[in-house]
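Researcher: Here's a chain I'd like modeled. Treat it as a single chain, no partners, no ligands.
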Amino acid sequence: MDANIAIPAALIGDPARAAMLQALMDGRALPATALACAAGLTPQAASNHLGRLTDGGLLAVTRQGRHRYYRIADPRVGEALEALSRLAPMPRPLDPPLSPKARRLREARTCYDHLAGRLGVALADAFERQGLFEADGPDRYRLTDIGHARLAALGVDLTGLKPNPRGRLRPCIDWTERRRHLAGPIAARLLARLFDLGWIARGAEGRSAVLTPAGAKGLRDAFGLELEPAAAA
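Model: Modeled as a single isolated chain. Structure tokens:
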């Protein structure tokens, strides 16, 4: 029997609920008030939508005192949202220019738990050029010995990674660049380390990411990644 994709599609298809889900794509948990603001709703209206997303298994909720914090329930939800973003129409040449927010998201952003945008694609290209990963079956990679050594030198902790049926490192087609960046548990550990090092900082929009001057130098030294000035601004 085919899976009933209409159920999650109906949940995601509502513009207000889609806005809430996109606001959570940086991997953090947010209170209901912040999600109401992201969707342009009153708190009462937002509560109904959040309840439906939680009941539908797309969001998980944690109570802290009087407040409830919502987050993406499962990495597969983030992957589904990213896949839908690739189906969404991109601006055509005659369309109005991208807004500053859209340009920042295109430059660098988090895709739930890994790095995306031009920076994420450039980092994946650098990994490939330097032989840090190799194919491990359809749509999955494995780190080479040099890849393990390079990430260890950077301080990326790869211990305790649980077996993953989709692989620990895999390609994820970027919805703005239409090329692949790196996803999976290893990519998530790498992004966390880049934040810890201060090489990447969170942007004003939450999901956007900003490459710091230290990060531009560090990624060049570690992976030979030469960045355009706009990426390092």
